[in-house]
Amino acid sequence: MDKQKFNIKDLPEKIKFYAGKVGEYKLLVFIVFIVLIYGYSMYQINVFVTQQPSTNQVQTLSNPIASAHIDKSVVTQLQALQNNSVSVQTLFEQARTNPFQEP
Hints:
Layout (H helix, E strand, L loop, with lengths): L10 H13 L2 H25 L4 H8 L9 H13 L1 H12 L6
Helix pairs in contact: 4-5
C-alpha cells in the first residue's frame, strides 16, 4: 500500500485525463445544472407567494391617509371668481351635477 506522492510534473497529465472523463458527461452536467437552477427558482417563487405580511407591515399600510389641506385664501378666491362670472358658475354647476363628463 504505497501512497502515491504528489508530483507537480504529473499535474498536466492528470488534468487532461480528468478533463477527458468529464468531457464525456458535459451534456448531462449542463442539463442537471439547468434543472437545479429551475428548481431553485420554483422554490423561491413558492416561498415569496406563500409569505404572509407581518403585523407591523399591515399596521403601517393600513394607517389612514391624511386628508388634503386646502388653503382658505384659495377657497375664497374661487368663490369670488364663481360669483363674478356667469360662465364660471355654469362650469361649476355642470361639474357638480356630472363630475365625470368633460365639458
